[in-house]
Automatic annotation (TrEMBL):
<dbReference type="InterPro" id="IPR006311">
    <property type="entry name" value="TAT_signal"/>
</dbReference>
<feature type="transmembrane region" description="Helical">
    <location>
        <begin position="15"/>
        <end position="32"/>
    </location>
</feature>
<dbReference type="InterPro" id="IPR046867">
    <property type="entry name" value="AldOxase/xan_DH_MoCoBD2"/>
</dbReference>
<dbReference type="InterPro" id="IPR052516">
    <property type="entry name" value="N-heterocyclic_Hydroxylase"/>
</dbReference>
<dbReference type="InterPro" id="IPR008274">
    <property type="entry name" value="AldOxase/xan_DH_MoCoBD1"/>
</dbReference>
<keyword id="KW-1133">Transmembrane helix</keyword>
<protein>
    <submittedName>
        <fullName>Molybdopterin-dependent oxidoreductase</fullName>
    </submittedName>
</protein>
<dbReference type="Pfam" id="PF02738">
    <property type="entry name" value="MoCoBD_1"/>
</dbReference>
<feature type="domain" description="Aldehyde oxidase/xanthine dehydrogenase a/b hammerhead">
    <location>
        <begin position="213"/>
        <end position="299"/>
    </location>
</feature>
<dbReference type="Pfam" id="PF20256">
    <property type="entry name" value="MoCoBD_2"/>
</dbReference>
<keyword id="KW-0812">Transmembrane</keyword>
<dbReference type="InterPro" id="IPR012368">
    <property type="entry name" value="OxRdtase_Mopterin-bd_su_IorB"/>
</dbReference>
<dbReference type="InterPro" id="IPR037165">
    <property type="entry name" value="AldOxase/xan_DH_Mopterin-bd_sf"/>
</dbReference>
<dbReference type="InterPro" id="IPR000674">
    <property type="entry name" value="Ald_Oxase/Xan_DH_a/b"/>
</dbReference>
<keyword id="KW-0472">Membrane</keyword>
Amino acid sequence: MSQTTDVKQISRRNFLRVSGLTGTALFLGFYFPASGKEGKVVAGADANELGIEMNSWILIDTNGKVTIVDHRAEMGQGSFQSVPQIVAEELEVDLKDVNVIFAQGNQAKYGSQITGGSSTIRGSYKNLLNLSASAREMLIAAAAAKWGVPKSECYARSGQVFHKSSKKKFHYGELVVAASKLEAPKDIVLKKPSDYKLIRKPLHRRDSPLKTNGEAVFGLDKRLPGMVFAAVERNPRLRGTIKSYDDTEARKVPGVKQVIKVKMKVFQSYREGVAVIANSTWAAMQGKKALKVEWDDSSFEHLSSDEIYSRMKEALNTKEGLSFKSQGDVNSVIQQAQNKIDVIYETPYQAHYCMEPLNCVANYQKDKLEVWGPIQAPDWVQDFLSKEMGLAKENVIINMTFLGGGFGRKAFLDYPHEAAVISKEIGAPVQVVWTREDDATQGPFRPGVSYRCEGVIENGEISAFKVKLAGQNIGHMDGGGKDKPNDSASEGFVKHYFDSIKNLSIQDVPFETPIPIMWWRSVYASTNGFAFESFVDELAIQAGKDPLEFRRQYLKDERCQLLIDKMEEISGWKNRKKNEGFGVAITECFASTVGQVVKVSKDVDGKVKIDQVWAVMDCGWYVNPDIIRAQVEGSIIMALGAATIHEVTFKDGLAEQKNFYAYQMPRITDAPPIEIHIMENSADAGGVGEPGLPPFTPALTNAIFDLTGKRIRKLPFNLASV
């Protein structure tokens, strides 16, 4: 997190002096000065006095109630459990006594609020630990002062401070007023992991009961007095416009109140549509079906999938790309080699298909706009709507609800903008709900990417490693510089390969289409991982070496070596049998490294089946092992679908898959046994929600090669027909 607003110089004593927000509560947070990355503890009264926007994490009231402000979204990844689990550990309170509320969008106060890049814990855990420990020490100091005893004779537990010898105790609520007037401790000693009572424990998620008994509020659950409902017929091709529309039949649908033309910003374009406003979502959707709209899509190409991939391949074979990484003299080695590998890998476009379709509630009133919904990036939405709607930022209030999945799609800005525009136009609060077909066909999609991989093996070692990728660059969608390579060109590739491969080149061949694209779980690592780790496997086979030992040869970092040791141990790698195929892959993204081994065999009908998946996660410091296992399992199942079942294809510029019947998901019967292990070390926290996805597909296809001798280089493939 970062803070961009600086304030006047203040003394350390004045800055760290903590007093209550109202004198009746202990209200602690972090202030992030523009000049430094480290947050500093500050209290509510001081923040107001100094003009500081404070990242307010913890409020303890006079009843001893602890409230945590969670600045990130909860979309299934576990923020609603992990954040309070961290705070309760160092604050010494029972987890059941901690209340969690979602923060409103406010980057000046909370720093980055984007729930993406697997960043929630790794970006804030140190601040959370320090803040919680600071609050605990202030409460202990307040109790010691009341008793007139040394602080060293007191300790905190379960929301109370105890005096060791006398057994006297105060609950936190009795101490907050006195504690709020103390100076924050200068040096905090955090617990050792061996002393944790909550962190590292597989505690049950606090949001699970809410989501099973109906108490959790998702975007679709939000209701406001006088709210109406809208469904929008949008241009199915991003850059087209409305030529004309006939709403005669739509207005005849019972419940339909109004039909208006709208547009929402999608990157640097505006997608046009016709909104049907009604007294229910059902009526709005029926009115939408009755619309007759003629589109003008004449100003851009309408590409089909075959044309897209043909152009990618031509670009890879005829063009040198923009250099992302270059070391040694790759081209010279390849040109002089008598024997080299030169292959193409292809990955498809994918859609997000969150179980909860896009939706948003907006209420525009004069110079104020308030929004509620499943939003991954409330601070981005606040900033964007402030500019687009011409409102002061403080008058744009963004409220997060629970999300029924996000995967990057709900960090986008188009659907809140559309709801805000409609609310302003009709002068009433409105809920806009996208149908599954809207969600599936409008995009933005994960970009399909093709890779040309060239390599040379000499004396059993890699003497040249060259990868060129051609695929749409997400950075270009917002007008990013097209003279620079994709900054995620090596995402997923373990960085230690760069230390050990002398002649290496990674290039990005610029490639554009009119199709809108954006982030998808693990972003480019989801496609890069397949190409890079499949190609490493091909080089291992060319070198005549064991694929796992080949990786050990190049990943010399101690953590990588220990990870490989664990993979070898749990999978029984050295005891592989005939008629079994074993494949391995190791990828890195968002500061975590994950290795996976997949075992396959043939069933009685001769078809390939997945017998077992072993995954080893090295994410450094972590909170809840059950959440990690759930995220890795979910990532593997999502990767399985993207590798063997679903893809988005285009015909005449339109997405062909419109619902689950065409974009099928893995079923329970498709899910293989999965065994997950977490590495224990003292490294900084890495991401958890996404890094488990990239290694699965190459591990699977490498296993299929080991079993059948067939090398799969194009996704998706049909597992039953391999």
